[in-house]
User: What shape does this take?
Amino acid sequence: MLVFYIRHNWNHSDFAALNPRLFAERKIAVHYQEAVEPFNRGHYHSSSAKTAIDYINRASAQETLIVAAYAGIDKILIGLSCPGSKGVEECQGNQLKMVQLCKVREVSRHEFLLPFVVPPPHAAFVRWHMGERAVLRFYRNERDAIGLDMLLPWHLELLCEEWLRKQQRLHRKLFHTGKTMQDFDIVGLDPQGEYLIAQVKHKASAAAVHDFFSKAAPFFDHDAARLRRGALFFAGHAPHDAEPGQIIPIEKVIAEFERDEPGYLAALYGSHQPGTAPRT
Assistant: This one.
């Protein structure tokens, strides 16, 4: 099932009072411009408007899971779109295109953290590829074990960073984990004050592994012993011929957290207390 995210952050002050009503009535809405045929994408100028109208039409044509945020309201709605429910409502001379939600869960921050802290950026109405697995799992109250293929790249980077702390190998961070660095995902110091450098990949080729260790070697003055201690490659589906100790299977990291701290793993994935929000 597709998952969409919509934010009701109205720029027009006249719309501000709409959010409590839309929230209470379990509806989503987009504005953009007025159109003779409100649900005809060809009557809109901007690409974002055309996309939003496409999504409104799709949500009304078939059940779609919608995550809806409303400015000024500290909860979100997660629910299914009701087929055939699209309609138009006038508000202060402005044309709103709406869809009704059903089987809705009213969700607070402590129940499902992901959509509050890592919502999709920018656009008002988007397909939420990144959050799809986590949202579906939360909505369906699925409690199956969290596996490698359910985790996103930033999940894996954080998980491996915390594993290094858990193993008392990472003492201090030196740079932001992940995207701010081109060649490494984790750069810090170990308890002895030596560099600790790591790369994290869902799946890695032998060439990628070799490239990482080549780029890490100068940090250890090309000393093979120091490189073995301080450079680590975390890989899902790790190569069978990988050197033990330097290449760490991410499956091992996940299994250790599942055994020792399952609450952390569930919270990292996005749903700390699944199943607490009733559907209305």
Q: What stands out?
A: Residues 272-277 have pLDDT under 50 and may be disordered.
